[in-house]
Amino acid sequence: MDKIVIEGGTPLSGQISISGAKNSALKLMVACLLTDEVLTLTNMPNLRDTRFLGHLLENFGVEVKDGDKKHNGHLSLHAKTLSSTTAPYDLVRKMRASFNVLGPILARAHKAKVSLPGGCAIGARPVDLHLNALKAMGAEIELSEGYVIATAKGGLKGAEITFPFISVGATEHAMLAAVLAKGETVLNNAAREPEIVDLAKCLNAMGAKISGAGRSEITIEGVEKLGGTTYAVVPDRIEAGTYALAAATVGGAVRLVNVRSDHLGSLWPLIAQAGAKVTMDENSVLVERHGTPIHPVDVETQAYPGFPTDLQAQFMAMVCLADGVSIIRENIFENRFMHCPELSRMGANITVTGREAIIRGVPKLKGAQVMATDLRASASLIAAGLAAEGITEVGRVYHLDRGFEQIEVKLGNCGARIKRVSE
Ligand code: EPZ
Fold first, then answer.
1. What is the mean pLDDT of the chain?
2. Measured from the CA of 132, which atom of ligand 1 is nearest?
3. Fewest Cβ atoms nearer than 10 Å: which of 105, 251, 318, 352?
């Protein structure tokens, strides 16, 4: 198993190109199930999760082609016919986003059998909102032996659906199902994340009629058929935020390119409050901190446009080194503080009570052996390691490989002393 070894204490200096967004790419890939024509995605990140989803799609008879043998950011997906309508446990349990194949398969084949995803390290993560949305569209749903068995005789029907709270996955799933439903679907209290807008744009390019994506009310007028298209995945706002926070944590100057700075509106003022300088132009963002102290900042995670839960761990690494006390509240997932004990091993002073963490800043962190517990937690440990004195070894880096493309190369190009070691 690989580990990442970091020698801390060197400021970052250089340019980082942001990859396509994992959390958009995964849903865009699933959209290929809705058409018998070719869907080509460009600006595709090459990640463990996207490769894994490619295998799952092959299980349904989708022809998956990676531009050429060497990854070049193009992925062609051709679901000419669906050879299977079942997603087995082994394929769904490894990645929750796999569950989102249910709606499209049901919409196209009028039946689907998909394993329930189960919980994961950051929380129980039920799928009740997903299932209720499909039921509202006329699906009959039976739960049996860990599987969702769904049928929609004569196809899905448009419906008005009001989500009791905001869910990114349920909003996307309902959109993916409603595009081929008969009649109009209205989603109230929908998620507004950029990934939702990206999915709607791609589906519309395939012939769907979706309006309102990015607002709380989304309207989908069902169409009979979707076709193929070529679509570029939106830049990854979480990857961009991770490197921006790493620059603020470690110090130095990092320019982010291929970035949508408008997708991180909640982050920039907080980084500035912490004492880093943020300069934006049309195509890039420069984050700098040169020897000035990090100031404490309180933050709570919220659905978009609020502060993203996927940057919470990275933000915490920064304020561990602040000259005062910060409070971080996690409102989205009930168990997303697993990085705290690991950061504490490096000398951080963190007290967690329920959904709140109190971080008393320390003057320095010290390198240690730590364990990645989930994808974003891994990135926080890497930033902490880069800022720390001495050597940090981050184990279980397979978490990292799920969602960060070549993190050690991108940081290495900015002068970080970081390497991947196979054990
Ligand atoms: C997406 O997860 C992302 N994953 C997550 O990124 C991200 O943290 C999350 O949205 C919030 O922004 C992907 O896009 C693949 P939710 P999702 O449905 O869709 C509860 C990462 O690190 N809920 O918005 O699963 C749920 O348990 C990952 O890249 C229900 O109770 O998130 C959570 O507490 C981690 N019932 C809350 O809602 C449901 O049916 C919000 O979850 C659905 C969700």
1. 95
2. 40
3. 352
Q: Can you tell me the mean pLDDT for 122-147?
A: 92
CATH level 2 (architecture), domain 22-232:
Alpha-beta prism (3.65)
* Alpha-carbon gap, residue 146 to 149, rounded angstroms: 10
**DSSP string across 140-194:** EEEEETTEEEEE-TT--B--EEE-SS--HHHHHHHHHHHTTSBSEEEEES----H
Residue with tokens 């018998």: 36
Does residue 127 line the site of ligand 1, with CB under 6 A? Answer: yes
- The domains of the chain are located at 2-19+235-422, 22-232
Burial (CB count within 10 angstroms: exposed 0-12, middle 13-18, buried 19+), residue 356 = middle
Which residue type sits at 36?
D
Going by the DSSP 8-state scheme, the letter that residue 292 receives in this structure is P
Per-residue pLDDT of 277-327, as tens digits, reads 999 988 899 999 999 999 999 999 999 999 999 999 999 999 999 999 999
- Ligand 1 atom closest to Cα of 122? 35
Here the tokens at position 253 are 């100057």
Indicate left, alpha or beta for 69 from its phi (over 0: left) and psi (-120 to 50: alpha).
alpha
Topology match between the domains 2-19+235-422 and 22-232? yes
Determine contact, residues 405/47, Cβ cutoff 8 Å. Answer: yes
AA letter at 354: G
258 C-alpha to ligand 1 centroid (Å): 25
Closest-CA residue, ligand 1 atom 3, reads 23
120 is catalytic: yes
DSSP 303: S
d(CA 375, ligand 1 centre) in Å: 14
Q: Residue 98 has which token pair?
A: 């796999």
Report the CATH fold assignment for 2-19+235-422. UDP-n-acetylglucosamine1-carboxyvinyl-transferase; Chain (3.65.10)
